[in-house]
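If your schedule permits, I should be very grateful for your opinion on a structural question. Thank you for your consideration; the sequence and its tokens are set out here:

===
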Amino acid sequence: MAPARRTGEAPSGPQGPAPTPRTKQRPPPPPFYLPLNIALYLCIITNVISALYAPIQDCDEVFNFWEPTHYLNHGYGLQTWEYSPVYSIRSWLYVSTHALVGKIGSFALSSKSAEFYAIRCFLALVCAACETRLYSAICRTLSPRIGLLFLMVVAFTPGMFHASTAFLPSSFTMYMSMLGLTAFLDWRDGQKTAQGIMWFGLGAIVGWPFAGALMLPLLLEEVVIGLLSSNMRGMFLSVLDGAMRCFVILALEIAVDYAFLRKLVIVPWNIVAYNVFGGEGRGPDIFGVEPWTFYIRNLLLNFNIWFAFAMAAAPLLALQALFRPKATSVQTLLRTVTLITPFYMWFAIFTAQPHKEERFMFPAYPFLALNASIAFHMILSFVGSSNPNVAAGSMLPKIKLAVVMSIILMALNSGLLRIVGIMSAYNAPLKVFEPLAQPGVAQPGDTVCFGKEWYRFPSSFFLPSDLRAKFVRSEFRGLLPGEFPEAADFSALFEGTSRIPTGMNDRNEEDLGKYTDLSQCSFLVDSEFPSRKATELEPDYIHEDTQWEQLACHSFLDASQTGLLGRLIWTPDLPITPEPLRRKWGEYCLLRRRSDVTISPPVTLVRKVDARLQKRSHAEANARMSLAGGVVALPDWGKISSGDKRLLAGVHSRIALTLLAIHPAPFFIVVMFPDSLHFGQSPIYDIALISAVTSISVWLITRAFHWWTTTSKPDVPRSSTPDLEKKSVAVTRKPGEWIPSDFKRPPASPYPDWDVHTTKPIPYRPFRYGPKYFVTMGLRSMKWDEWIELDNHYLKYHADKARRIAERGDKCCKTAPEAWDAAIELLEELTSYLPERYPSMFQRTPTGLTNLITHETFNITQRPLPEDPMTIAARLIQDDLAIMIERPDGEYYLLAGAILLAGFWRLSDKYGMRLSEIHTSGSVPQYTEKLEKGMMNFFRRLKPEDPVLRNNYFIQVDDSLPWSHSIGSEDAEEVSWSTAQKNKAIENHWFRSERQSLRRLPKSGGVVFTIRTYFEPITRIVEEEYVPGRLASAVRSWGDDVAVYKGRERYGDVLLEFLDGKHREQLDRGLRVELEDEVRKYPL
């Protein structure tokens, strides 16, 4: 049984009739379609290109690995909280091995940046060796064709391009996974179970502990084989041997970490403990969460059609086993199941995690490539069959070849175009620091500051030895790295790594001590994108010419303005390129403070030339300097000094200048060609790439990616790794169509110490100081625990609702047939949520729930229901409820509601109306001009997992919560503020505030409004500090249209006089208005 496991082919289709016997035996087929040495060279070339040109995509790579490595080799660097001895969730063994490589390379290299690339090239060689080893094992034990397909995937996909040379534990784990899989595959010299365990264990201990899960299916297969072959003793000894090797590796890591931290720590356990058992406010989720579709989109981007094949491996295998059982043996079937399971398992585990990052998939990339290769091999075996009884057997061979080659060429070309697109779009941070290496530019003690571009800093390896990186405050509010204590020798290094730094925490809480004042910055790195607006903390430094001068500027893709295809792949910047396909650019610049340093002539000229280039459009200059050399017009050659002419002729070792005199024009053309070419920077590469894509028509590529034009992008707060290509969310479904989502609301935590008699209402005060009143939707994210708010006004609200249900019936509560499913789903959601959040009041029953306070029991499973489902829902909570349903015309209609305490509007007036009509019929100010388009887009894109909140407020001049009688009778045909008595006594003024939640129901797709009204007399809320002054300022800030809508003319004089008086009283008591932000936050 065991030998058969290792020598059989992977699943394939029938090969047609048996060939006629030959008298002369055929030679055995070669084990490799591509010789091993060629395969190794191919992997080295692709990986070295990655090492030299790939941008750093993950800021964790810089701050958690490049910076500690720089500290070990140069005595200073930035430090993250993970390296604090208090937390110690990063191992110094992993970093120190790379630092050793860099140190050895530094003896032959002249710059720190060269040391950086030396380490990257080392990673490229290691990855190439691992890829070649696994290629060899696949070819020998599975099939040469599977091996060749595997090689194509790992060599020409963007995913492997980035992972191959990333200085990340997940990349190291990927290397070890390849070696471990090789050991489990290759039985040429006997079983290598212990070796396989050792390689996977090395990746898990030194790299990422979770990666050990990839080994489980392979190890289980070994156990099964041991049972079937009655060799469990040998199997046990092999596992024990592998475990002992892993313990030796762990002991070495503990020893190394003890030397650096001066304490015994087990880093793999610390990583697991923090990520799995971190507790409230800790763990990976505090760095951002992504929807479950994140890895699907990410892997499609990074592996294109190969990911589809990888996911199809199991279904294809099942279909083959079901309908073509003779195509493969049982042993081969079981072996294939074992080989394809690790990727599915890894994909499922990490898809289920809320926090997702691209690098988490790196360990599974070899398994993805293997799955895709096996799946495509099965398809090729079926298509290549010559059996006339098989459908594919009757196809012409040329047609088969054309189809297969089209798929392969499309996959290869789309992968290469994306690689080139990423390199040319985002590599500015690796180039912008080059002027600092020039003599006289940087002085000892200078600092390079980073604000909003902190996460793109490529590491201190790109700064001269006398420069230090600092941070200035930006809109980012997480924890930035600190600094290791500077060390002059090895003893000081170990002292620095063992010292507990200040200002560190494991909650991603901002530490103001990490910032440097802008006045202390000698240099500044900043970016400018036409689509991004400057803020107070993130001004447009690039154009502050009086303060800063540009030393170097490079183009950086403006993803928000670039079309889908331009963001996905490289597109040529040619005049014939259609505008929607052209890439749009921003600037990524290194700035120098004008008052600090006298500009040296070489830098001045380069900056001027570069600036002139940047001011020209692509059409005027034909190509930007950062895209394809450079063409620029300079003043008359005679007006340039002889010294500057020499500088232009040899200003930088990487630039050659060709000077062409065009007379009688009063300027000269300077053509700049970099002698060290980069992708996307030279016409040579442009021409080569255009030639490469001729194998596929533009139409085919466009159609292949067309569906991405409307693929949703996660509208979730950014994680620790910035997303370089995030853009507006688009929706693919047809209007009125909803595909049920598998999203489930997280369980609600019990409200702490909640009591129906003592828990007070939350004092929402959603008004802001003038002088301007902004008409906006005012949305903010909602925590699921806060969906429904109940307090000690519950019994009053419950009684009011019950009375109005009895009196007004379907005038207040109604559900249209097409909204019935949504109303039932809402009722089910409330039945689930309320016992979780308020267990002292609600108790779940097999058929619904019981209100323990009012002693009502609700059966939501019986049919027909005793009442309209919206009526039942309204009896449970203090909120009014409304459900909007999207119809095929793309409009949202109010088709279900329980509007019992609205005060100013009636369900009977709005029922059945479109969303826009609801607002325009109510004369909502500036709705058409400022709100309609954004609101429609918001409703269309709202996802079940992204609930939101908003607040508003009104002034009411009577004390009726359900209906404000001052604007007319509730049964009157028309109501308005014109009927209200003017300037009533202040005791008749009430403050009415609404807290609205909006969420989409996952099954039905209905959008639910909950409208909780808070109702208090003005005379009570003005006793709160700051409230009278702020409310008076807000009321005065209303424009004429808002003032009419809110009825200010009927109460403004009395109200404002009263508020002003109360405000003066607070000021007289010593209230300091400037301190309000320290004690109150909107909307409170």
Q: What stands out?
A: The mean pLDDT is 82. Residues 112-141 form the longest helix (30 residues). Residues 73 and 612 are 39 Å apart (CA to CA). Residues 428-593 form one domain.
